Prior knowledge:
The protein is α/β, with parallel strands linked by helices. The chain is about 30% helix and about 30% strand.
Amino acid sequence: MVLRAGVMGLGVMGRNHARILAGLTGVEFVGVFDPAESTPDFVHDRPVFRDLDEFLAQDLSYVVVAAPTVYHLEMGTRLAESGIHALIEKPVASTSEDARALRDLFDAKGLIGGVGHIERYNPALQAARQRIEAGLLGDIYQVTTRRQGPFPGRIADVGVIKDLATHDIDLTAWVTQQQYVSVNARTTFRSGRPHEDMVLAVGTLSSGTITSHTVNWLTPFKERTTVITGEKGSLVADTLTADLTYFKNGTIRSEWEQVSTFRGVVEGDVTRFALERREPLLAEHEAFRDSVINGAAKGIVTLDEGAKVVQIAERMAADGLLHRPSAVVE
Length: 330
């Protein structure tokens, strides 16, 4: 069975999706829809359509939506009404209300809908999830993430929370298999744009795990780090290099009666795992392709999960605004 697939939007991510689709086994890359005059006429020897109706008439099995977030609801709706499965880049929609509308529409049509939270497919986080499930860390106490770097000129319609922090919201819930039950945040607006460009957030998950997320567009170096701490030690994942390191708790022995009940930890063995490093975007596409073939969402980020991420992101943004200096009342 060969699926016919296309892309909507030819920005940075759209070009990467087109590259993957052009070489993906079991898939025929049909082309791209992008009405911008600056786009080329062909990508990977496939046409760039300027007319949406013409694009949707290409007998498409599924489409990757890589246009700006503000267009996701409109494009996703057109695809669902045309009976076409869709992988929609994160965030799945501009608001949680729109995200739920897409979820409900795809469910009603019996279509596969996925969200492009690519960090789930990073080898370091995949390996971390597997080892946590195997009991390597025991109970999970805390997840901390740092996602920092310079401002990306391609982003204009959302702030750093929906663009970047959504990665951390999704991966934290996924790697721990818990849901957020509360979140608080502080935000700044330093670059003269209407959206926040820096956030420091803390949260609590459904099994009591606490989280912290440092995310910004104002740091002159790029960092993508996740630290998962549990009763037996810590896993440190660097998703830029796809490295995963395990810091095991050492053993404390004391014959001093007054401190023998102390339950702290010391440094133990350190293990850097050897991982198979496959491109996360390719793994994401393979999972979505297989879900379409099998008619069941398996190994993908569902529209329901994507909607929950947007909801938590909205809570972060709202709490950040609540605590801006101008909003604080003495």
